[in-house]
Amino acid sequence: MAQANLSPEATKTPPIEGHPHLPDWKWYDYFTFNIDHKVIGIQYLVLAFIFYLIAGLMAVAMRTELATPDSDFMDPSLYNALLTNHGTIMIFLWIVPAAIGGFGNYLVPLMIGARDMAFPKLNALAFWLNPPAGALLLGSFLFGGAQAGWTSYPPLSVITANTAQSMWILAVVLVGTSSIMGSVNFLVTIWKMRVPSMKWDQLPLFCWAMVATSFLALFSTPVLAAGLILLLFDINFGTGFFQPDAGGNVVVYQHLFWFYSHPAVYLMILPIFGIMSEVIPVHARKPIFGYKAIAYSSLTISIVGLFVWVHHMFTSGTPPWMRIFFTISTLIVAVPTGIKIFSWVATLWGGKIRFTSAMLFAVGLLSMFVFGGLSGVTLGTAPFDIHVHDTYYVVGHFHYVLFGGSVFGIYAGIYHWFPKMTGRMLNETLGRLHFVLTFIGTNLTFAPMHELGMQGMPRRVAMYDPQFVGLNQLATIGAFTLGISVLPMLINVIWSWSRGPKAGGNPWNALTLEWTTPSPPPVENWTILPAVTHGPYEYGVGIQPPQPDQPALDEA
Amino acid sequence: MKQIPASLLTLVIGVVVTLISLWVGQNHGWLPEQASEQAVLVDDFFNVMVVIATALFLVVQGAILFALFQFRQRQGDTTDGEPIEGNLPLEAFWTAIPAVIVIGLGTYSVYVFQEMGGFNPGLQEANSQGTMVAQVMDEQVSDVGAPLVDHGAADKQVAGNYGFGASPMKEGNTPDLTVEVKGLQYAWIFTYPDSGIVDGELHVPANQDVLLNISSQDVIHSFWVPQFRLKQDAIPGEETELRFVATKPGTYSVVCAELCGAYHGGMRTQVIVHTPEDFEQWRESRVAQAPHQDETVAANPAEMTATDYLAPVSQALNIHTHSLAHLTSEQ
């Protein structure tokens, strides 16, 4: 294995036309149609985080309603509007844009030694589809709010709150379009714009994850868009695609919806797997264990992930053979996922683990994801799924995967790359407080839900039987803890961004290419593009981590 | 520690983890009581998964916690860990183990699914009675006074093809009791074609083979009895079925599991499992007291509003007051 230093060598490429050559971005640059991938990445992250806070408040309001069995805190139709928009915003305007748009845009060019994404203007356009989507969703509350759940099954979605439901559809189609644009951009960028010295097996695992994610998004998103547009026609123009009275079929919508929306789970977790594979080796000071196994398992998940959607429909009108086929294919996803988890544990094994906030969230994710994965296997089997389908067991399971998984991963990524993005360090004490509150809050909120579901509490209800009150109150306390847990992070980010200690080019002594530029990286990232002389995770073999020169930071 | 060979330590840990997992699998108490033949099958299967999941959970979490403690950075140590990048036998091992487990669970789940009757929905079509009972669904519930069983028309193969049919033991048999189940915002209506009873609660005899033909009047609902471990969506325009044998007399909740509107959470009723003698008594008393049946036979339901249509049976229906108000306001 080559052990030369990762020093910038002369790989000169001409600067990209159209890029302004500013020494630093000003605050207002972040509110413009800026085509720099780093600006777009931060735009995605900040906007997504704002939506996270909004949808989080919706969750707290719902849990407040569920503190008592009766529907006494809010009107049940408002409750349904909140649960619909909570789910939609969390998925389409928080996790997907933060993980794919935010980290993907910021990191992919930096990790492969490119000056920008392949199509910078398409990239900016993809971002700017998100604010109107968010405005549509929030504005829909003026018209009663879409009330049919984030799945929006007809006929319910056709007969309730038509204007709001149409706004919901347009919002989701907008973010879907954004996602397709982004995926094309990532694939072309990773394929064509790596520095010539970077071989495929030197590609950071985050980029491998983005390849898998983009493939999956390109295959599945158009199907959702098609289903939703047909639904829009049913609602507004009197067509009958999904209306049995007019010769339509309500189950067809479910097939179209889940063909995208189960893969959406992998869209939300594959980039996070990528973040895990970057964070763990750096803070455990060990090469990632099983590089190829992790890279290939991402691709396997994206392929098998396209063939599991019917496990959401075991109780719908699905023929028996489908239930069996999709039981088996769903269970098979556990194998590549298991490979990743074992590889990360093996990376920890024998390392010199630094308990940074980023590492705490990464290990927290590992721990939660094991639980969520195991309950996922039980849900994949038709006989047991039929009992707990559409119950709180499912709610508990997917929050372990999407909160304990995706959200923890986004947090780990923020703590890890914040110094690179801003040139400032985050406060570690606040970071640990954030972690402890989040970890306790997550388990307190979502663990009791499994038992509630098995005992007989369906999901999406504003009122429930009094026998479930104890566990529900536990979950409500957990939700308040989660609400409070965001505060230390918010304070930390806002304070550290302007006043935090300077980070230097490579505060974690990491070996991937993004750490070979100053923090924050200048426009076009490098004066001279770096050359790759070793793999991204070769810790423990005496390679000196790059320590790029820092330009003076503006203290103002 | 140094004196104990690693293989012995692994063996001891393995035995302890296995014992704990087996104990958890038998004693978790997470599921409600079993009240149908299917519930036993589902629970046994779930318990096997709990044993496996507990073992995996303990092993992985144990490894994580041990690594965090054992391999933490010590004070003043700024060196890197051992550069171990992979180990093919180990990777093959932890790919093979989950693969074997999921193939095993997959096979077992197919077996359970078959025993539950998952492969046989709609097979009672071959039985003239089942077919006839099922196809009456689309005609109105208020036809109940008529002797439906004699309607014939065995050539129409419209019985449900989705849901749960007979278990292999009962395949080909005519169900002992057939009930038409209709979901509407926000109530369930149960119709007994052979006696003309219409009720808002489901009454079934214990230890008899019961077939529910499920349909929906408006949106998707989902019929779920947690103690039976059975759930089936009521789909507009499509018929589904659920065939079960209730094993334990008692009263259990019928829950709507699919979001069906604002008062979805209030769409609750009960299934009352009687002893066969009690069931006969209940049926006779209902048939004897059914005063409104003659009127409903004569009425044409197509000309009635939902409120009028429901009026004769509203007392028995146990519909949430909100729901009735909501229903009426929709007219």
TrEMBL record, chain A:
It holds the Pfam family COX1. Belongs to the heme-copper respiratory oxidase family. It comes from Halomicronema hongdechloris C2206. Keywords: Cell membrane, Copper, Electron transport, Heme, Iron, Membrane, Metal-binding, Oxidoreductase, Respiratory chain, Translocase, Transmembrane, Transmembrane helix, Transport. It is a multi-pass membrane protein. Gene3D superfamilies: Cytochrome c oxidase-like, subunit I domain (1.20.210.10). It is found in: Cell membrane; Membrane. This is Cytochrome c oxidase subunit 1. Residues 21-533 form the Cytochrome oxidase subunit I profile domain.
Automatic annotation (TrEMBL), chain B:
It is a multi-pass membrane protein. One of its GO terms (cellular component) is plasma membrane. The chain crosses the membrane at residues 7-25, 45-71, 92-113. The gene is ctaC. PROSITE patterns: COX2, COX2_CUA, COX2_TM. InterPro entries: CcO_II, CcO_II-like_C, Copper_CuA, Cupredoxin, Cyt_c_oxidase_su2_TM_dom, Cyt_c_oxidase_su2_TM_sf. GO terms for molecular function: copper ion binding; cytochrome-c oxidase activity; oxidoreductase activity. It is found in: Cell membrane; Membrane. It comes from Halomicronema hongdechloris C2206. This is Cytochrome c oxidase subunit 2. The keyword Transmembrane helix applies. Its cofactor is Cu cation. Belongs to the cytochrome c oxidase subunit 2 family. It catalyses: 4 Fe(II)-[cytochrome c] + O2 + 8 H(+)(in) = 4 Fe(III)-[cytochrome c] + 2 H2O + 4 H(+)(out). Residues 174-285 form the Cytochrome oxidase subunit II copper A binding domain. Binds a copper A center. Keywords: Copper, Electron transport, Membrane, Metal-binding, Oxidoreductase, Respiratory chain, Translocase, Transmembrane, Transmembrane helix, Transport. Subunits I and II form the functional core of the enzyme complex. Electrons originating in cytochrome c are transferred via heme a and Cu(A) to the binuclear center formed by heme a3 and Cu(B). Its main location: membrane. GO terms for biological process: ATP synthesis coupled electron transport. Its EC number is 7.1.1.9. CDD domains: CuRO_HCO_II_like_5. Residues 22-120 form the Cytochrome oxidase subunit II transmembrane region profile domain.
